[in-house]
Amino acid sequence: MSKSREAKAAKIRQLIETEGDAVNTSTRGFNEGRYEAVQSLDDYEGLKADARAIKEDAIERLPDLLDQLRETIEANGGTMYIAEDAADANRYVREVCEDNDAERVVKSKSMTSEEIEVNDELQSADIDVVETDLGEWVLQVADEAPSHIVAPAIHKSREAIADLFNETFEPEEPLETAEELTMFAREHLGELIEGADVGMTGANFITADTGTMALVTSEGNARKTAVVPDTHVAVAGVEKVIPSVEDLQPFIELIGKSGTGQNITSYISLLTPPVESPTVDFSDPDTPITEGETDREFHLVLIDNGRLAMRDDDQLRETLYCIRCSACSNVCANFQHVGGHAFGGETYSGGIGTGWEAGVEGLDSAAEFNDLCTGCSRCTTACPVNIDIPWINTVVRDRVNHGEVSEVDWLVEGLTPDEEPGGVSLQKRFFGNFETAAKVGSAFAPVSNWVAQSSVSRNLMERTLGIDARRELPAFQRETLKDWFDARDSRVQNPTRTAVLYPDVYTNHVQVERGKAAVRALEALGVDVVVPDVRSSGRAPLSQGMIATAEDHAHDVYAGLAEYIDEGRDIVVIEPSDLAMFDSEYEKFLSEKSFERLSEQSFEVMEYVYGLLENGADADALAQTQSEKVAYHSHCQQRTLGLEGHTEAVLAELGYDVATSDVECCGMAGSFGYKSEYYELSMDVGSDLKRQFQTDETHDRTVVASGTSCLEQLDSLLRRPTQHPVELIAPGR
Questions:
Q1: Which of 288, 258, 304 minimizes the C-alpha distance to 82?
Q2: Which of 1, 205, 261, 558 suits 514 as a labelling partner, its CA being 20 to 30 A distant?
Q3: Nearest to 115 by CA among 387, 299, 350, 345
Q4: Which residues are 571's β-sheet partners?
């Protein structure tokens, strides 16, 4: 294993052990809360569409909106400054503080201020900076970086915070409970806010028409920070500008529900700072509000720092639609187990973090954690503005692959020659072209399997390809599904439907029995089936960031299937990730007409069986049971496509007693679970599923799963036979 892989594996292992439990508990709680909260909305998808439309429009018209906002802010008596980069923003903020002879600045939580590292700038000028958000203050005291964009101290337990406070502040009575810790922080920070000279906030949204800032917080510190000091500086990215106050409505509805599962965030502050508003004087407790003339100042510092370049980048532009709710982090199984200190860069973390880091910090920062996104697509349905986060991450991965990371950084990491700048690593080339390996493996099976499993081969693969020696390898079959099908002399007489069974790589070369079962099941239901000789979908190269290769696959697949679509045949797919390619990613690769033809004609195999049964096919032709007990796990992308219910319905109709897993990710994620740097994380994520399938209710059930990765992981976790649902229902099993 290369030094970089060893270092990455060690870091992940450490974070699993030290922070994993705390992060997992909180993020899963937030995510489950989101599921419950959005159910209260009459039209959740409609709100998301409205929010996205507003952001699309705002980013499209951003230069004009910035001009309008400047006029509005100045008319209100404030000052607006657009900073080119972090250094420019910090200079401006420091000068504002120095002009006001500021000795202390109090801040409310702001990821943008983290991005520009304004605290360091002010402290270098001998200005005391105090974070007033509880989580941010905990981290300031601990001298640590945030692990989550909404809950920065999510990785710290109550006990750890109590130890930190007791050691640092030495209170008369040791602090223990959450209430004691909170009250101590409230009193301590309240005094610091009262004596502050400048207050600094971020802004979740800024309206161009009125200059109104929306601060969405869980604590009351932000509004105190904004109004108690005589000078208020708001720091935000230029992307936070939206056209009007009316446009705030869908975001206010969505941001709390999406981020923390709250129906509405604790504090929604709409501030339109007029400089004539009265100031506060705590030296006179009887009349703290001053009268007459005031010296209040307001400065809005909007930061570019790469954002306008992102606006002009067709692939990264969507990142600017982000409202920083953290839903993509909370729903991500990998993030749930390691948090932002592994799944993050210099500032931003989680699913959307790759796009932000690439845009504002550079590809070298994004490259550090980009591969932790497995492309499962769960974040796309969680995102309140429908950002295609997996695609952004794939684009960044593709750019990293092409050597746009600085050579110095790579050399410092001690990478092996195959990982040097200027091309795709040997590991990614292998997994991205797995179809070739599968063809060779089948051609020489079973000898190829014996050779691959030898200790010499396993050690060599771990050193050169980063394939973890602890992971069991697939066993290639000499007779492929295509070979088997072509050797048959069977055709359905008077078929009710005609279909193509798409032979994905694993079904064709490894899991051949599930392919045979699918053919038998479809034929039993009156479907005339063909198995074509067609290329793999391109999912494998796409997962490695090899976009051009994936696009080549897409065109070849469509060319190979077009004649069958012309004949009116349905396309039936066993592997959900391949169906997701046809139904989603191919939109980026094919013409609109070609994409629509393929997408509309493609079905997951159990979805297709469900449709046949609903339209009159004879269920008695399939394998029946007398309440055979089944433990079922649905593939990530099958859930994203909304298809898991079809499998449950078919199994129930045929008499199976189905217990469906509510664990959303098995942890395998295709090639991810094979890679030595991620093997332990893969197994840690899978431990949730293992526990669920070893309960008294499930331990003796037949285990079925819809995806190749899920089946492989379950085989490793449970050490008992697993199979695809279609193998259960096919006649003759």
A1: 304
A2: 558
A3: 345
A4: 500, 602
pLDDT 10s digits, 17-40: 999 999 999 999 999 999 999 998
Tell me the C-alpha distance between 150 and 260, whole Å: 8
Instruction: Characterize 117-135 residue by residue with b for buried, 16 or more Cβ atoms within 10 angstroms of its Cβ, and e for exposed.
Output: ebbebbeeeebebbbbbbb
Amino acid found at 584: S
If you write DSSP's letter for every residue of 5-47 in order, what string do you get? HHHHHHHHHHHHHHTHHHHHHHHHHHHHHHHHHHTT-TTHHHH
pLDDT in tens, 621-659: 998 777 789 999 999 999 999 999 999 999 999 999 999
Amino acid identity for residue 610 in this structure: Y
pLDDT digits (tens, 9 = 90+) for 102-126: 999 999 999 999 999 999 999 999 9
| Cα 272 from chain centre | 34
Q: How far is 527 from 518, CA to CA, in rounded Å? A: 11
How large is the greatest C-alpha to C-alpha distance in the chain, in angstroms?
97
Nearest-angstrom CA–CA distance, 167 and 436? 59
> Which two three-digit tokens encode residue 21?
């439990």
d(CA 258, CA 326) in angstroms, rounded, equals: 7
Q: Is the peptide bond before 541 cis (omega within 30 degrees of 0)?
A: no
Q: Please give the mean pLDDT across all residues of the chain.
A: 92
Amino acid at 564: Y
Q: How far apart are CA 522 and CA 499, in angstroms?
A: 9
DSSP 8-state assignment for residue 358: I
Query: What was the pLDDT predicted at 221?
Result: 87
Distance CA 30, CA 201 (A): 24
> Please, is 295 exposed, middle or buried when counting C-beta atoms within 10 Å of its C-beta (0-12, 13-18, 19+)?
exposed
- Type of residue found at 587: E
Residues 241 and 211: beta-carbon distance below 8 Å: no
**559 in Cβ contact with 538 (< 8 Å):** no
520-555 in b/e burial notation, b at 16+ Cβ within 10 A? bbbbbbbbbbebbebbbbbbbbbbbbbbebbbebbb
Report DSSP letters for 237-291, one per residue: EGGGEES-GGGHHHHHHHHHHHHT--SS-SEEEEE---TTSPPB-TT-TTS-B--
Distance from C-alpha of 146 to C-alpha of 155, rounded to nearest angstrom: 9
Element (H, E) at 663: none
Domains of the chain in start order, with CATH, are 49-308 (3.40.50.10420), 481-729 (no CATH)
**The two three-digit tokens of residue 36, written as one number:** 């419950």
User: What is d(CA 587, CA 597) in angstroms, rounded to the nearest whole number?
Assistant: 11
Residue 471 DSSP code: S
Does residue 565 surpass a pLDDT of 80?
A: yes
Give the amino acid at 502. Answer: Y
Q: What is the number of other CB atoms lying within 10 angstroms of the CB of residue 63? A: 11
Report the alpha-carbon distance of residue 143 to residue 461 in Å, rounded: 41
Query: In which band, very low, low, confident or very high, does the pLDDT at 409 lie, cut at 50, 70 and 90?
Result: very low
Q: Measured between alpha carbons, how far is 527 from 498 in angstroms, rounded to an integer?
A: 5
Q: For the segment 430-476, what is each residue's pLDDT rounded down to a tens digit?
A: 999 999 999 999 999 999 999 999 999 999 999 999 999 999 999 99
Asked if 633 and 705 touch (Cβ cutoff 8 Å), the reply is yes
